[in-house]
Design a protein that fits this description.
Layout lengths: L3 E5 L6 H9 L17 E7 L2 E7 L11 H14 L3 E7 L6 H11 L5 E6 L6 H4 L12 E2 L8 H11 L16 E7 L5 H9 L17 E6 L5 E6 L12 H16 L2 E7 L6 H12 L3 E7 L7 H15 L7 E4 L11 H13 L4 H14 L4 E2 L2 E2 L1 E9 L4 E7 L6 H14 L8 E7 L7
Parallel strand pairs: 1-3, 1-4, 4-5, 5-6, 7-9, 7-10, 10-11, 11-12, 16-17
Antiparallel strand pairs: 2-3, 8-9, 13-14, 15-16
Length: 446
């Protein structure tokens, strides 16, 4: 297990900026709006010469447990329980607040190693402004600037001293590489509730308020088969016309980035409302990125006419997502847990299809049969000659077809080949790429 370093502090003191600086890349969303980080965010990073699990947390606030700030604080406190080191961040520009003092007193009772970071201490007055932080009784503060990188050399030295001794390293087995799974969908479809149901704990903040998740949050998990999974909960994607605030634009960008990095996308759809155009846009986006998709038909327990609901979603998929024909749909209720146990076996099934390679011999037998059943059309009065097919890659399944002027093949015949391939080799619900490679006659210009 990697040592866990948890970044904590009240809202808007620069925790996420420090987190990104230590991680060496922009992972957490940073904005002047207080409370942007609502769920803790984890990433493996190289800090102080060793690999660690770096954890960014929501801002610590005094609030009733049933409010959003109260749930944010509970999430941060849960992160502290497994921490090997706490980086407690204060803002020296604004000076110590009663909240800083209250949470410092609370941290002293936890019995965890703590480094106090006097953030925003850039410039000549930075060190002088940080002297006040001695009052917290957590040791000498480290003047740093998450934005400019000031003081990070000393910070790495202090982290190296504070962490437990490094154990002997075990060689990682590539077979243990986790499946990368992104949970996507519209706001308030139940994405975070589903992630919590899969994990069996209140890992993500949930509630009736739409848009609670603002950033893409990755969680490592071992599923019921004992295999590792990297789950990513994402912010809800709204229609572009409704994305007005800069913060929401960054949340959308983080969601799209999660789609680019995942292998399988679970599209969470509100079964009561049914699939709408925005759900289809998200599915098309995942398809363009080459990701396999499984639909989690959430809130199934609240659907009155289930047969009608199934027919409706199947009609929408047939009419509007023909490029993902046969997409797998799992009805479930994330809130009650009913049907959730069927999701991961379905995801693994989609993953196997997405990874499947077809031998060249079998591929060309299919190709010859497809050409026999429907000959290529005439283009400019001449029939296209398609010669053979190969499968250069999977993830997603990709077919390369060679022939004279193959690149001129009309769109409807391309769709015929893709659908024929999908049916012949039982590949439902995954994107299929078709690359056409023409062969030129070297004497055509003579």
């Amino acid at each position: 297990m990697l040592p866990r370093i948890v970044v904590m502090g009240r809202p808007n003191v620069g925790k996420s900026t420090l987190f990104n600086r230590l991680a060496g890349r922009r992972i957490a969303i940073v904005d002047d709006t207080p409370g942007v980080t609502r769920d803790r965010k984890e990433v493996v990073a190289r800090v102080a010469g060793r690999d660690v699990l770096l954890v960014d947390t929501a801002g610590l606030e005094e609030a009733p447990p049933d409010t959003i700030p109260g749930r944010m604080r509970a999430s941060s406190e849960a992160a502290l329980r497994d921490a090997d080191l706490i980086l407690f961040v204060v803002d020296v520009r604004t000076g110590l607040t009663p909240s800083d003092r209250a949470f410092a007193q609370w941290l002293r009772r936890q019995g965890k190693p703590v480094l106090v970071l006097a953030n925003k201490a850039e410039g000549r007055l930075g060190a002088a402004n940080s002297l006040e932080v001695y009052e917290l009784g957590l040791g000498a503060p480290l003047p740093v600037s998450g934005e400019h990188g000031d003081g990070f050399g000393e910070l790495h030295d202090e982290i190296r001293e504070a962490l437990p001794p490094e154990p002997e390293e075990d060689e990682e087995d590539d077979a243990d590489r986790p499946l990368r799974l992104a949970i996507v969908g519209r706001p308030n479809a139940g994405k975070s509730t589903l992630l919590n149901a899969l994990l069996g704990e209140e890992r993500m903040i949930t509630g009736p308020e739409p848009g609670l998740t603002r950033d893409s949050v990755a969680v490592k998990w071992i599923d019921e088969t004992g295999k590792p999974v990297r789950l990513v909960d994402t912010a809800g994607l709204r229609r572009r016309a409704r994305i007005t605030q800069a913060l929401e634009q960054m949340s959308t960008a983080a969601t799209i980035a999660a789609l680019k990095e995942c292998e399988i996308a679970v599209l969470v759809v509100d079964a009561v409302q049914g699939m709408d155009e925005q759900d289809l846009r998200i599915a098309r986006l995942a398809e363009r990125e080459g990701r396999a998709i499984v639909i989690a038909f959430n809130k199934w327990d609240a659907v009155e006419d289930r047969a009608a609901a199934r027919r409706k979603v199947e009609d929408v998929l047939t009419a509007s997502l023909a490029q993902l024909r046969g997409i797998l749909v799992v009805p479930l209720s994330a809130a009650t847990g009913k049907g959730v146990e069927k999701l991961m076996p379905t995801v693994r099934e989609a993953y196997e299809v997405w990874n499947r390679r077809i031998p060249t011999g079998a591929l060309n037998r299919w190709f010859e049969d497809a050409l026999t059943r429907h000959q290529p059309p005439l283009v400019e009065g001449k029939r296209l000659k398609l010669r053979y097919a190969t499968m250069p890659k999977a993830r997603p399944p990709t077919i390369a077809i060679f022939g004279t002027r193959a690149e001129m093949l009309p769109e409807d015949y391309r769709r015929y080949l893709v659908n024929s391939f999908r049916e012949a080799f039982d590949m439902p619900g995954v994107p299929v790429r078709l690359n056409l490679r023409g062969t030129e006659n070297p004497y055509s210009e003579e």
